[in-house]
Every structure is written in structure tokens, then in C-alpha cells.
Specification:
Elements: E1 8-10, H1 22-39, H2 47-51, H3 55-61, H4 68-83, H5 91-127, H6 140-147, H7 163-190, H8 195-208, H9 228-241, H10 247-263, H11 267-284, H12 295-302, H13 304-326, H14 330-364, E2 374-376
Antiparallel strand pairs: 1-2
Helix pairs in contact: 1-4, 1-12, 1-13, 4-7, 4-9, 4-11, 5-7, 5-13, 5-14, 7-8, 9-10, 9-11, 10-11, 13-14
């Protein structure tokens, strides 16, 4: 989830140039901003404002903002496939990879938990309500499961609703690395030329059964498999670009998921397919390092993780203050919306400097391979 995608692999003292995918950073920034707008209408906070806007504008800007999540999932698959493109995965490597990803993700996540609890406590004090972060009383089991990304698995409410995607993404990373290691082991131990297909074709088929409706959709999942296809689309787009997979297979899989999304009216699946195809086509056009390399958009992409994790409580506080001072009207709601966006971006920028950058440095201190080989993710 590092906004800047860079990788350097070397078996000698000379390192390859770093590779930056500015297009990915831009998409991540757009996704984060879209999710913020998606959460704006919660609790009827901008009902007067949206009633005065054209319906199509409300749908595109606010109602469809949840599509930022499939953007994140597909981008994650693309990025992790790039990160592991030359990795030789064994149990030791898997352990170091897992530790490195957690070192990158966890400090900002823990800080965002503290932020959510602090704002919930402040809100309860100001409004005279019971302290209930995420609309549920805080308990030790609830807090403990959050620390290990397993609150959904144990059926406990999130302290901040956005945390569900992070729990799923952690599962994506670990499962994908394990499956890639399995494919490499089959190749080295049994000399199976198509070991990657043996592992990932069944995984792709199983994942596709969920958007196709063959497995029941029970809403937000607590484990990775129902949304696994989004991550795999990013992986397959990268492999198709790097000639590790026939593009025909990627497009067939995309067409299958798109058909399922249209038939079942699943915007999530449709969004994943659009992003996956877009990534492959932009990469094949050799524009990953050129398109959308706008300073403000790159900035949003850089802080997108912190922005995603912390915007909900800051948003709520901005709306509370704005409406309390200006009273409730379409104009005051518009002002509060702008205030919430600015405050969320400002806080995320500070968090990027104080928390995310050190966590990136910490993760990079964990070497993935032996001294003669260095991979920076």
C-alpha cells in the first residue's frame, strides 16, 4: 500500500534504476478522495445540499464513491505482483515478507485506532452520550482483535468502519505470497512447467464463483475469498504486461467477471474489471510513469493510506462544528463538506510525515533476501 511503487533487484553491487508508477499513485489518490465523498452523506449530513444538486452529480460524486475500494484492491494486486516478480519464496522469505508488510501497514493503522478512540471519547463527552466507538461499547477482546486485524473474523464491530478493507488486504498479501511460493516449489520439486497455472487458475475460478452468484453474498466479508477476484485482476494485469501470462486469459477472466457484474448488478465487480483493464492498457502503452503525474494528485496518492484510515472521525468532527456554528442549511453543509475534506487531508499529511515515513523506513530495514540479493518493496 506504499503510494510510491519502486523496486530494485540486484545480484551484484550495481542496482537497477528505481521504477515509479505515477499512474498508480494518481489512481490511489482519486480512490481515497472518492471514498471520502462516499462517506459524506452518512447520517443525512448533506441531505439539504444533495437535494439541491442534479441527481446524476450526486450519484457519480457521492453514491459511487464506494468504488474507491475496488480501485485499492486491484492496485494492491498489481503492486504486490511487481514487488514479488523476482522473489524466490521459501518459508524464511515468507516470514520476512509478512513482517515487512506489517511493519509498513501497522504503525499508521495503530495510530488511526487511537485517533478513532480519541474522537469517539470527545464526541461522547460533548454530546453527553455513552462512549461507544463504532457505535459499540469498547471491550478488551474488541481492542485486542483489532491489533491483529481479525475483528471481523471474531464478529466484533470495527472501531472505524474503514478498517474492514485493511483486514482483507492483509489476507490478500499473505495468501498470494504463499500461493506464489507453492507454485515455485511445484516447479522446482516436480519440474512442472505450468506450476503457476496449476495454482492460480483454480484460485481464479474459485474467486469468480462469488460475483457470479454461485456462492451466496452475505454482505461485507470477514475473509478474503469473496473479493479475491479484485486483487487477482491486478496480479493478472501485471503478469500479462510482463509476459508471464497470456493477455487472452486476462481478458477472458475480465469478461467473465464483467458479465457477472452486469447480470448481478454488482458495481464492485464492474469497477474491478475497469481498473484492471485500464492498468494493463496503460502499462502496455508505456505510460505508467507519465500519465496523471500531476503534483496535487501525486500528493493525494502519497498520503492516501493515512487519509483513508483517519478521515471518518475527522470528517464527523468537521460536520459537527460546521453545522453547530452556521446552523443547518444547504450552504452550511457545503461549507462543512469542504472543511471536512481540507481537515482530513491536512491531518493525513501530518500523519504521513510523522508516522508513515518512519514505518516505510522501518519496513525497508527488514531484508527480504540474503546479502548478495537486495529487493526493496
Amino acid at each position: 500500500m506504499n503510494p510510491k511503487v519502486s523496486s530494485t533487484t540486484s545480484t551484484t553491487s550495481v542496482a537497477k534504476p528505481k521504477e515509479y508508477f505515477y499512474f498508480l499513485d494518481a489512481l490511489r489518490g482519486i480512490a481515497a478522495l472518492w471514498v471520502i465523498l462516499f462517506h459524506a452523506p452518512l447520517d443525512q449530513r448533506i441531505a439539504l445540499l444533495t437535494s439541491s444538486l442534479p441527481h446524476w452529480l450526486v450519484v457519480v460524486v457521492f453514491d459511487w464513491g464506494g468504488l474507491g475500494v475496488p480501485i485499492f484492491f486491484v492496485l494492491s494486486g498489481f503492486v504486490i505482483a511487481h514487488s514479488l516478480r523476482e522473489a524466490k519464496i521459501d518459508l524464511a522469505y515468507f516470514g520476512r515478507f509478512s513482517l515487512r508488510r506489517l511493519a509498513r501497514l501497522t504503525p499508521p493503522y495503530y495510530v488511526s485506532i487511537v485517533v478513532a478512540l480519541a474522537f469517539a471519547f470527545l464526541s461522547s463527552h460533548v454530546k453527553g452520550d455513552a462512549f461507544a466507538p463504532g457505535k459499540e461499547p469498547l471491550s478488551f477482546p474488541r481492542l485486542l482483535t483489532h491489533l491483529f486485524y481479525v475483528q471481523d473474523i471474531f464478529g466484533l464491530a470495527h472501531i472505524n468502519e474503514v478498517f474492514w478493507t485493511l483486514c482483507i488486504e492483509v489476507q490478500f498479501y499473505l495468501v498470494f505470497c504463499a500461493l506464489l511460493g507453492l507454485a515455485q516449489w511445484l516447479n522446482s520439486s516436480w519440474n512442472l512447467r505450468y506450476s503457476r497455472a496449476i495454482v492460480f487458475v483454480p484460485a481464479a475460478i474459485l474467486a469468480a464463483l462469488f460475483p457470479m452468484g454461485l456462492f451466496a453474498d452475505h454482505g461485507r466479508p470477514f475473509f478474503f475469498l469473496p473479493l479475491w477476484y479484485g486483487f487477482l485482476l491486478g496480479v493478472f494485469a501485471y503478469w500479462s504486461w510482463r509476459d508471464k501470462l497470456k493477455p487472452a486469459f486476462f481478458y477472458f477472466y475480465s469478461a467473465l467477471l464483467l458479465t457477472a457484474g452486469v447480470v448481478k448488478s454488482t458495481q464492485f465487480a464492474i469497477g474491478c474489471v475497469i481498473v484492471g483493464v485500464l492498468l494493463l492498457e496503460v502499462a502496455r502503452a508505456n505510460r505508467m510513469h507519465l500519465w496523471l503525474n500531476w503534483r496535487w494528485l501525486q500528493f493525494l496518492g502519497q498520503i492516501s493510506y493515512s487519509l483513508y484510515l483517519t478521515h471518518t472521525p475527522i470528517y464527523g468532527a468537521a460536520f459537527f462544528l460546521g453545522i453547530k456554528v452556521l446552523h443547518n442549511s444547504a450552504l452550511s453543509q457545503a461549507f462543512s463538506l469542504l472543511l471536512g475534506i481540507i481537515a482530513s487531508i491536512g491531518f493525513a499529511a501530518i500523519m504521513w510525515q510523522l508516522v508513515e515515513k518512519p514505518s516505510i523506513y522501518l519496513s525497508q530495514k527488514i531484508k527480504l533476501v540474503k546479502k548478495k540479493e537486495v529487493i526493496r518493496v
